[in-house]
Amino acid sequence: MTLSPLQPGTPVIEVEGLTAGYGDRVIFRDVSFRIYAGEVFVILGGSGCGKSTLLKILIGLLPPMAGSIRVLGQDISSGGEKEMEAVRRHIGVLFQAGGLLNSMSVGENVALPMSEHTDLSPETIQELVRMKLALVDLSQAVDLLPSEISGGMKKRAGLARALALDPPLLFLDEPSAGLDPVTSLELDLLIMSINEGTGSTMVVVTHELNSIFRIAHRVIFLDRDGMGIIAEGDPRVLRDTSRDPRVSNFLNRRTASQNG
Fold it and tell me: Are 67 and 77 in contact (CB under 8 A)?
């Protein structure tokens, strides 16, 4: 699978008529949307609406019940593991808890995708590891174990690993979950900086309002009772203009500090 440079406005992910669930239980049905090159696209909604389920489908960890999904031009809904593996080499994933292997140092964790998917020399990989860790301000943690760093540092290390192969598409699962406000702000600013500096497309699952308004270019709002998308667009516009109480109530759960 060879990718041409992605121009702004090019569809990176195309979802049509997606239905998903577990066993006989349907979580959402007939969901359709597009994600375009260079944008930070946030999937949001209340508990049980299917945010994590949708993310798992987009990265190939869960098959859909119905519908089609094209990621980077590849149909992953009808293709096999070979097709999905080709896509995975062009995406990076930051899992909610960082997803680091505890038996390996931070540097070794970041090096792992390069060792598995490239023919680069060990010396080149080590140089790239230093560059990725410097990008997320973790140069000092290269030889530390995950158990020796803070929660915020684990998120940044996980982000460095997600960036290891310079993927055009990044998936971030609850990146700010469990972080204090200052650390959350720092991570949001880092996400914005990487998006602007690399032009990468980012798909983020979060319920943190501060982060949504800081980083999102566009959102979809999933609703558990509606079993699908009930709103799509700029979250700031939806907050101020939506007449759907489910959307308005969710996006206006703001603290006084957010009103400034």
Answer: yes
